[in-house]
């Protein structure tokens, strides 16, 4: 058949890169609204987030790429509520972070618009894609950099997957310990409070009887 | 000229999406406040097999309403107050599919919901290659190990969510036990001292109690 034009051949790898958000999940966000997502991850795990925004154009009644001035503010907090990433990106952005403590990380996004009229009562459409751990690795890049054959690359992928499983299991052990501590604390509390309450009850009973007896004796009723 | 170029590019994009059966797996965990509804949208091509799986991680009775609509607004899936579910469907038309999670039935508990929306199959490791020969035995073995590990990771995620749910319930129980015990001890003291004070008040300020008590 006819050889496709070189320009068309070139668009393919370009599209692979550009189109990473072409069919991503999207949602609508208000002007002052803050949307947060939680990622519970083990430590030393890389997280890559890609987003793309579109603004509703009332005249054309469709969503168009947002004006360059409109950006998103991305804030990432670690399980101890410490901010590990706090940056403003443009209307299209990519943020990366690596967790240093295992647990629930919170990724929050809100638009940096200070002019309330900018959205014109509409909503901002945000395409978001968050990849964690093994899914975040770019195999094409690794293959090119280390010059791996297909088999070597597949084995590399398996190694990454197994490492992720190992990390997750390690994290699981730490979580199970916390769970066990909570359960044991509940057990202790129930035990001690039952004993203390019984003692209080008995002591109060004695005090009431003694007090009333001495009171009635004073009143010469008994 | 510009418009023509854009038109060609759009056609190429759709054609490639069709060829590759562009796959996406989006999994997100988000917080759903009380009386709130959160919707997500995804553009899907006809014929793609998609799976939506969700689980409520923390909050209240651990349930949420879920609804999935196709581009024309027909309801494909609708369940109320579900803790966990998995729904597979094949896209019958091109367009934007919408799925919503609603916590509108709850007055003061906010929920944390996890969902995993898988569209199509996973992209191949080498998108640029032309498969001229069948996979060798080593490569097929690698592929099957990869699939098995993927299901291991999947099970791990489900397990992690259930553990988070259990842990959240245990921590709730722990705080409730503490508050309840302290509250009950205080009530006990207040009531018993109150009883004595009340009883005393019946008998005080009346010097001629023996005759008055009866009336």
UniProtKB/TrEMBL annotation, chain A:
InterPro entries per UniProt: Emp24-like, GOLD_dom
Parts of the chain that traverse the membrane: 190-209
Keyword Cell membrane in record: no
Subcellular location: Endoplasmic reticulum membrane; Membrane
Coiled-coil regions listed: 141-168
Signal peptide extent: 1-24
Membrane topology term: Single-pass type I membrane protein
One GO CC term, this protein: endoplasmic reticulum membrane
Superkingdom, natural source: Eukaryota
Limits of the GOLD domain: 34-132
Keywords: Coiled coil, Endoplasmic reticulum, Membrane, Signal, Transmembrane, Transmembrane helix
Record-stated family: Belongs to the EMP24/GP25L family.
The protein's name in its UniProt record: Transmembrane p24 trafficking protein 9
Source organism of this protein record: Erpetoichthys calabaricus (Rope fish)
From TrEMBL, chain B:
A Pfam short name: EMP24_GP25L
Cellular compartments per GO CC: COPI-coated vesicle membrane; endoplasmic reticulum membrane; endoplasmic reticulum-Golgi intermediate compartment membrane; ER to Golgi transport vesicle membrane; Golgi apparatus
Residues spanning the membrane: 177-199
PROSITE patterns, per database record: GOLD
SUPFAM superfamilies: Supernatant protein factor (SPF), C-terminal domain
Function recorded in the entry: Potential role in vesicular protein trafficking, mainly in the early secretory pathway. Appears to play a role in the biosynthesis of secreted cargo including processing and post-translational modifications.
The protein's name in its UniProt record: Transmembrane emp24 domain-containing protein 7
Gene source species: Erpetoichthys calabaricus (Rope fish)
Upper classification of the organism: Eukaryota, Metazoa, Chordata, Craniata, Vertebrata
Gene from which this protein is expressed: TMED7
